[in-house]
Amino acid sequence: MDATKLQSIHIPDARRRRSGGSFWVIILIVIGATGVALYIARPWSEDSRDVKPAQHSANGVVNASPEKTAPQQKPDVRPGDAVLTVSGHIINRERIEVSPRVMNQVVWIGVKKGDHVKKGQVVVQLDDSEQKARIAEIDGQLAVARVAVERAKVAYARVRKLRATQNDTQEHEDEARLAVASAEAQLRQLEGTRATAQVWLDWTVIKSPIDGVVLEKLADPGELVSPQSFGGSRGPSTALVSLGDPNDLQVEIDVSEGDLTKVSMGQRCRVSPEAYPDKIYGGVVAEIAPEANRQKGTLQIKVQIEKPDNFLTPELSAKVEFLK
Question: What's the topology of domain 99-126+207-244?
Fold first, then answer.
């Protein structure tokens, strides 16, 4: 009985070999399907999918896809190449120190350091009491002179009438005529004196000669000021305020003798302040000193800055590149 059962469940060798072969066929089919799926789902790059025929450029370089090449860097738009680079200092082209015309005392100063002023703006008032008193005195003298002229004219008219009727002499007529001329001359002289006194009075009002900024205040109210120095530290001040135009700046540099051939009048330059190296301004050589510095072996050059702004401050360092 047991032998019969074992015989019934016995599997022939041929059937066992066929079942093992089917199993490996299924495994191969699954691997193949997986490979096809991965191949279809593979992420293709744009360049590999869109390959175009190779083209030769003008310089002989082969470009497989000229439309897809990386963008070229923009060339430097700065004019020319720098042939010389020198450091210097920013200065005002003109630094004006406003000084009184005559010795006087400061009554009022209406500006401080850093203030912007307009041309003709009153910045300082000096004591004008003496000048006003002098004008008042001259005005009185002018009134007397005008009366003298009228008196001389009346006397001359009377003499002319008498002379016309032969009741007076020619000598008296000439004297009366000359008296009128003398009185009129004295009147004109006093008018000139009065004009001079008015000029002295106008000098007590100090106005800004330019549109600019106050670089320094050099005097205070109550201080005695003079147009010239008397020597010594205790003398009167010789200036009231110092002014400069912030829109008229230059860079002052010293160029060594060996580099002078690289610099010429009117040459284009690039200017960048040391404090703000990313700021670049156009410039031009505006002045070449007529005399060199023997001790230093240099020649002073001034470069005019074009379109300066608030980033440029006088006395700061700046780099100047001289262009071809």
Answer: OB fold (Dihydrolipoamide Acetyltransferase, E2P) (2.40.50)
